[in-house]
Design brief:
- By secondary structure, the chain is mainly alpha-helical.
- The chain has three domains: 9-108, Fumarase/aspartase (N-terminal domain) (Fumarase C, Chain B, domain 1); 113-149 and 175-205 and 221-354, Fumarase C, Chain A, domain 2, CATH 1.20.200; 367-461, Orthogonal Bundle (Ribonucleotide Reductase Protein R1, domain 1).
- The chain has 18 helices and four strands.
- The strands form two sheets. It has a two-stranded antiparallel sheet.
- Helix 3 (34-50) crosses helix 6.
- It is elongated, with a radius of gyration of 31 Å.
Amino acid sequence: MAHTKLLWTGRFSQPLSEIALRFSSSIELDKEMYREDILGSIAHVEMLASAKILTAAEARRIRTALNAIGTEIENDKLALTWDKEDIHTAVEQRLTQKIGALGGKLHTARSRNDQVALDERLYLRGAIRELQKLIVQLQRVLLYKAEKNFSTIMPGYTHMQRAQPVLLSHHLLAYAGMFERDFERLNDVYKRINKMPLGSAALAGTSFAIDRASVAKKLGFDGIVENSMDAVSDRDYLIEYIAACSITMMHLSRFAEELVLWSSQEFAFARTDDAYTTGSSIMPQKKNPDMAELVRGKAGRVFGDLVNLLTTMKGLPLAYNRDMQEDKVPMFGTTATTRQCLFIFSHILVHTQFDAKRFEEELKNDFLTATELADFLVKKGMAFRDAHAATGKVVAFCIQHQRSMADLTLDELQKFSDKFDVSSQALLDPRHSIENKKSAGSTSSQEVKKQIVHWMRILKARKV
């Protein structure tokens, strides 16, 4: 099978075998970047005309044909099959079919090495902005739920053991902060992605007097990648992008894990609507939190993509190596998975209700206000370590006698320290414990209201 239309066959006496071409073809993946490929090609050809490397008429014909090819692909009128090798080859082949030998001038002063790096950076810019929109959408749902459930108190946990009472709103807004850092990380990645590699050619630059800066400006880049070898031989921008997505997926997975736990009969803190749960094929009574479980499970895909690309790049000498073609699977996979999970999780959360009564029931069954007693003793002049030990003895007494701290009389409390007085018993109420918090960013209603106002201001002003 001959492949005379491939871009590099001039020095070869034998055509590439069909087996080798099928194995090495990347078009099934990189065709997703056809818009970016055509956009970059149009900017390139306009620069070639400005530099007098092409005439204005030639550039105009090429640009018109490229736009037409984009429309053909958009409308499924151009078959992007495996024998085209990659999206760059497919576009150039079709261009030559449409305008003849002039189409071959498009590739002047560039290589597929800098072309694919450009396409990826253009693609990632759009992917980042899309993911940021979904993060903001999720933050708005969190803010809505925090406002709606403002009066709900719950046991806060450490080591999966009940620790201290907190407002449910405080718990939810903790995730708003995590996703905010995810948003900011993507902004940071964007800055490093937004440098243009085109014009670096294969690795050494080009002998044509091209204007890389003008192309960068036309395509909305902040500047160029200064070193031509660096421009074509690294994928650290993509690794950093997947790393940022991995952290976002980790946050989603943690939240999903809580919803799975909270929807169990053992916890019964949360109920997700039937539309976002599934049943069992054998057990009629089951209602499973499958959507949350799938979000938790899909995090592993993105983590795997990160390791995949790090492993691909770790042993490559400069400059470009064909191994780097394998970057498409983790790039597209990470983007699709993160996008899907952010989108579905907002919907899961909207359709999840929290049970205030169940939360409060659990507050009665443990010693969540013990720290309040210890702090009370400290305020009375006792060293914190001594106060901690005295309060620990109160807890041990209650466990031994199957009592709750709220049931203890003042006389019983004073057996552990004469510094306890009638006001100390009020500290055992969970709501009093919450309102007694004074530090900025704490779980007191006053501080949580400040957090809500903070997020309202940020999310109202946010434009992505």
